[in-house]
Specification:
By secondary structure, the chain is α+β, with helices and mostly antiparallel strands. It has helices at about 1-5, 20-30, 75-95, 115-120, 155-185, 220, 250-255, 270-275, 335-350, and strands spanning about 10-15, 30-35, 50-55, 70, 100-105, 195-200, 225-230, 285-290, 290-295, 300-305, 310-315. The strands form three sheets. A five-stranded mixed sheet has the order 4-3-2-1-5, with helices on both faces. It has a four-stranded antiparallel sheet with strand order 8-9-10-11, covered by helices on one side. It has a two-stranded antiparallel sheet with strand order 6-7. α3 (about 75-95) runs parallel beside α5.
Length: about 375
């Protein structure tokens, strides 16, 4: 995306998380500041309050580029400071249009926030999730992956509530920082001609279905926000969407009036934004390794566990918390078969190599084993 926008005359700027490499930064961005190259900022590597970040001024001959240094404040504040500084200096540098990429570490763990935000969410004020379970009813795949051993089993309110409170605190703190950036934008000359897109790569279970992390096909983890604001975007309009996150690339180009390269498979969601359509797909596909496959329509979701040869069926309109598995009802067998057939169509469309009758060997060339950790149990 950054490369195509630069070819169209844009200056492109990055701050925050970039989980790839230096070379892709050089190709994608004109410059950047407070760049975090990696996944999570573990506590022993600075955590949220002292993340290890780097600068990039666009001059490939500068030896200081990508020299890692310790950030001096919470990552969310650090990244927004960099974004505000970029906006403040933009007109003194050039009059090109700009693309700004701001990628937060929050609300990924370690769940560290300023104390004033932690104090907003005392554990005793946090409601227990309605679909909370002590443990997922079966092994959904990576049952002991890192995310799932952040708390012991069984999941109980005494451990889940503070866990959720830390999550809310990080989100609220991040929201306040985004507000600072929007205030700066509003005060700038760019306010009337800037499109803002807010989204995320996934959600977290935080106790729902007995899970903590993202490695599942339930809506709390697989369905993400996608909020668009700016000139020509109708206010207070909500669409169910049914599209994939990689649609952000052609959508940005479409809204900017830039030709979408033929190599791009994803669809622009401009038809949703301008009211031409209410949804982009009649069904969408989800997957996690060879452990899970999902097909979702507006009304139903089928989750298939290939290694277990097991299915779940949920009526998403009547049961949005996905608590009532309908797959065992003989009256629903035709529906299950139809959704399984649709899943096979979607698998072929995306080039999924998994063969249902041989889920292990067919996927083996593409599989990277997860790091499994000891199962933590509550003390007796």
């Amino acid at each position: 995306m950054g490369e195509v926008l630069q070819q169209a005359g844009y200056e492109t700027f990055i701050t925050g998380k970039w989980h790839i490499d230096n070379e892709s930064i050089r190709r994608s961005f004109s410059l950047g500041s407070a760049i975090y190259e990696g996944g999570m900022s573990a506590k022993d590597k600075g955590g949220q309050f002292k993340p290890l970040v780097a600068e990039y001024d666009g001059n490939d001959d500068n030896p200081q580029n990508f020299m890692v240094h310790e950030g001096n404040k919470h990552s969310s504040e650090l990244f927004i400071d960099a974004a505000i500084d970029y906006l403040d200096k933009k007109t003194s540098r050039n009059d090109n249009p700009f693309f700004m990429y701001v990628a937060f570490l929050a609300p990924h763990d370690p769940r560290q926030s300023p104390q004033e935000y932690m104090d907003m969410y005392p554990a005793d004020a946090i409601p227990t999730p309605a679909n909370m379970l002590p443990e997922h009813p079966f092994d959904e795949g990576d049952h002991l992956i890192r995310d799932e051993v952040l708390l012991p089993y069984p999941r109980i309110p005494e451990t889940i509530k503070p866990f959720i409170g830390e999550y809310y605190a990080m989100i609220t703190h991040m929201d306040a920082q985004i507000g600072r950036l929007l205030d700066q934008l509003e005060a700038s000359e760019f306010a009337e001609n800037t499109i803002i897109i807010f989204t995320s790569d996934h959600g977290l279970a935080v106790g729902q279905h007995g899970l903590l992390g993202k490695q599942n096909q339930y809506d709390h983890s697989a369905r993400v926000p996608f909020i668009v604001s700016g000139p020509g975007i109708p206010e207070n309009s909500i669409k169910s969407g049914m599209f994939y996150l990689h649609s952000v690339f052609p959508t940005v180009l479409d809204l900017a009036g830039i030709d979408i390269p033929e190599s791009v498979d994803a669809q622009s969601i401009a038809p949703l934004l301008n009211g031409e359509q209410d949804s982009m797909h009649s069904s969408i596909y989800g997957a996690y390794k060879n452990f899970q496959r999902m097909v979702r329509t507006d009304k139903y979701k089928l989750i298939y566990y290939p290694v277990l040869n097991r299915t779940q069926l949920f009526d998403m309109q009547q049961d949005p918390l996905e608590m009532d598995d309908l797959s065992g009802d003989p009256a629903n067998q035709q529906l299950v078969e139809e959704l399984m057939a649709e899943l096979e169509v979607l698998k072929q469309q995306v080039g999924d190599p998994l063969i249902n009758s041989d889920p292990v060997d067919s996927f083996a060339p593409f599989f990277t084993p997860s790091i499994m950790r000891p199962r933590p149990e509550l003390p007796q």
